[in-house]
Structure formats: C-alpha cells, structure tokens
C-alpha cells in the first residue's frame, strides 16, 4: 500500500497556455495521470501539461483551501503569485 505523502496544491500549464489548479497527495503520479489523458476533463483536451508550481501543506484541508483561493484569482494574479515565489515565466507564452 502506498504511503500518503504530502498534501499539495499544484498548478499545471496546459498546451494551450491555460492553467489548471488541483489538489493531490501524490504529485508525480497525478501529473502522469493528467498527461495520460485520465486526469481532469479540463486537461484531457489540453495535453501535454507541465507542473509550473506547487505548495506542500501538512493537511488535506489546508491544501484544498489554498486550491480554492488560488482558483479565484485572475490569470494575472496567479502569475504574480507564482513569480513572487520564484517561478520564472517566458513572456511570449505566459502572459
């Protein structure tokens, strides 16, 4: 049985340049699932996806709360949030 790992809020960049935000406790496996076309409906037609950013939390509740609030941000607010945490963007494709 696989041990439950850290609880993560993650942000994927889809092939069409949009962002998808989700929660998982197995980040690497979840990204593979998305890229296999078996993840969220949103990402299935926007493959491949790549992980742009993630945050680790001690509890599922904290991670899901972070996901909820991140999803409420505008695209520019999301970019600003990730930039402030060290994510670099290619200005031609990310803004």
UniProtKB/TrEMBL annotation:
<dbReference type="InterPro" id="IPR000305">
    <property type="entry name" value="GIY-YIG_endonuc"/>
</dbReference>
<feature type="domain" description="GIY-YIG">
    <location>
        <begin position="5"/>
        <end position="80"/>
    </location>
</feature>
<dbReference type="Pfam" id="PF01541">
    <property type="entry name" value="GIY-YIG"/>
</dbReference>
<protein>
    <submittedName>
        <fullName>GIY-YIG nuclease family protein</fullName>
    </submittedName>
</protein>
<dbReference type="InterPro" id="IPR050190">
    <property type="entry name" value="UPF0213_domain"/>
</dbReference>
<comment type="similarity">
    <text>Belongs to the UPF0213 family.</text>
</comment>
<dbReference type="InterPro" id="IPR035901">
    <property type="entry name" value="GIY-YIG_endonuc_sf"/>
</dbReference>
